[in-house]
Amino acid sequence: MSNNLLKFLFLLITAVPIFAQKKNSFDLICERTSSVTSHKDLPKAIKTADSLYMLAQKPSEKIQSLILSSELYQHAGELKKAICYSENAHSVINQINDPERMAVVTRLLARQYRQVGLYERSKKYIIKGLEASGRITDFQKSNEAAGLLNQEMAFYEMELGNYSNAIRFIESSLKYFEKINSRNENRTAAASYQLLGDVYFKLNDYPVSENYYRKAESLLKVGSCTLGLVYNGLGGIRLKQKNWKDAELYLKKAEKIADTSRSLTLKKAVYSNINDYYEGTGDNFKASLYAVKYVRTYDSIAARNHSFTMKGAEIISKGKTSKKSGQMNLVKNATIVVLFTLLVGLLFFFRTKQKKQRSKFRNIIRAQLNMISSRSNHPLKQSDNSEFSNISVEEIDEKDSETDRRRNDSLMTSETESKLLELLEDFEKGDLYNNKGMSLSFLAGELNTNTKYLSYVINQHKSADFKSYINGLRIKYIVDKLINDEKYRQYKISILADECGFSSHSKFAAVFKAVTDYSPSAYIKYLDAENQSDKNVHFPEND
Fold first, then answer.
1. What is the DSSP secondary structure assignment for residue 490, as one 8-state letter?
2. Cβ partners under 8 Å of residue 436, min gap 6
3. CB of 424 within 8 A of CB of 464?
């Protein structure tokens, strides 16, 4: 009798946790997939998340699995798919009253749209999330959601250059974080302090910026992405102060985190600062290495954003139809088709207008180039007072006198002159003039002639001395790149200088302004203003 009683008690005791485990098994699998499996085997974690969606019975479980899929794809760098899942989760939440999950999903969407450059759409989700956070009954969760959304709004204001507004939203986020008591409090507060450090850095208030970076550093664990941004910020301050030793120390710490991180934003910021460090210390070889790293990272970000922009409507459509096609009615599908058609039409219109504007501006610049190159019939005589020709590539050395040129004129046959002119025209069609080792003797060797003949033909037929001729070709090359390839407008001026053969930022900027009457940054700003329509692509809300 006592044995049977003991067995009954054992079954009764074990039944409760087993039942509880079954009841919470969905949540447990989601949590484990997010915190453990994703770090060990990301593809496996994504498959698990898809399986969880198929097993989900309640709307809350479907939302949870969709959010998990979105976060995993974002972690993998596939923002198109991440946004698709987030939009799908948002559609499901709209069918139920769940302000807590609404705050989570809208913040996720706000961050994802910000990362692909759709800032106004990001702002719409922030506002919607803030409204939802006010309806959350749990005090802790309500304040945490409001703090995170205020933090996201600060990012939005920073993108617009409204730094005072950004500071106000960050300070609001910190006030919300002070009210909560959770294991994430330090990490979320640290992100706000790091963001404040960035804002004051942009305002050139380095002591205040460093103070906030230090606060963030004290709250963070080793290896976090935010800590990488903090070290990069501290390194940036030391660069401004020309404290090369400390700058190197912080930037090495930042690079160590960036190299193991999936964050392209962190990599881009760190490689940019390290490039500046080596430029400042005069190590051109290492500066070039990090310039390449920076460009590759930028290209990855640009490719990701461009791919999303071109297929944005398709993503939203898939996000609405994937895994819930039976719930979408005919009217909604028709609305999407109409809106998509209008979007394509608007894009085509703005693209056509933009190309005409670019063509017009390109013609203006080229007219300036031609006018400058023909200012004098005797270009060598004006070299003493020409703002353009006396800024040369260091390797160029031309010392021919007027007497030499006259003598060469009598020695060179007309056939040789014509052939050399033809070779120069072929030379102009390539990009050999961007070679940093370019000189009069180098080009003469390439064209199988001598420096005397080459110098005479350039002066006689190109209305310029050799260094002005080469610099003009280089500036025309980079102008065409800036007009026709948007990624070049995002490059640092030092990288543009390196691209077209100049050894320093300052020499390139001086030649560019002398040729075009614009500084490189002013010229890029003009082109970006013309191109702004591309960055304001809007997709219809799925409310």
1. G
2. 393, 395, 501, 503
3. no
